Amino acid sequence: RHATVLRRGQTHTLADHAPPPPPAIAPADRFLFTVDPAVERARLLHRIPLPLVHPQLGLFTGPQPLDHPFLTPFRLLAELPFHPQNPRKLKAWLRDHDAGLVEIKTRGKAVNPDPLQTQLRGPGQTPYTLFILRWDRALRAHITQRL
After folding, report:
1. Over the chain, what is the mean pLDDT?
2. Three-class DSSP category at 132
3. What residues contact residue 111 under an 8 Å CB cut-off, 6+ apart?
4. Where residue 86 falls among pLDDT bands split at 50, 70, 90?
5. 3-state class of 120 per DSSP?
6. Spatial CB neighbours of 80, under 8 Å, sequence gap ≥ 6
7. Residues facing 31 on adjacent strands
8. Which of 3, 21, 47, 123 has its CB 3.0 to 4.6 Å from that of 42, i.e. a possible disulfide?
9. Distance between CA 28 and CA 48 in Å, rounded?
């Protein structure tokens, strides 16, 4: 299995021929990281030197930013319960923190991101990225800023 990305004029490759071991799992730390889809498709998540926040969501976490060609870093600012029919707490947090554009990232169709982005967008200047993730039956919003 191989995954390759071209970044800043360089080629980066991950490869492995052994069966993947179970992933390391840890609670969300100060930073979240999305992984290039090629790594997931090649089943090479175990080659990333960070734990996952959930065994099936492809979202890594760590205590500090990591410059890695297969990862996109986000600073975790807050984590809140999310109720799609009543997002008052989330809207209040965004309003209190000068939210402007709000990007929604989700996995497994936890929510429909398009109408939610419009609903949560504020008049402020600060862009945020929200990861809306399902934990058993509950949804949680991880409020982040892209680095």
Report:
1. 91
2. strand
3. 82, 84, 104, 132, 139
4. confident
5. helix
6. 89, 90, 93, 140, 141, 143
7. 62, 75
8. 3
9. 16
Helix (H) or strand (E) holding 108: none
25/137: higher pLDDT: 25
Q: Supply the DSSP string of 32-91, one letter for each residue.
A: EEEE-HHHHHTT-GGGSSS-BSSTTS-EEEESS----TTEEEEEEEEEEEE-TT--HHHH
Residue type, 97: H
Residue 14 CB-density burial (10 A; 0-12 exposed, 13-18 middle, 19+ buried): buried
Q: What is the pLDDT of residues 29-55, one digit of tens each?
A: 999 999 999 999 888 998 899 999 988
108: tokens are 């497994």
Residues 16-29 have pLDDT tens digits of 877 778 889 999 99
DSSP code of residue 19: P
CA distance 30 to 132: 17
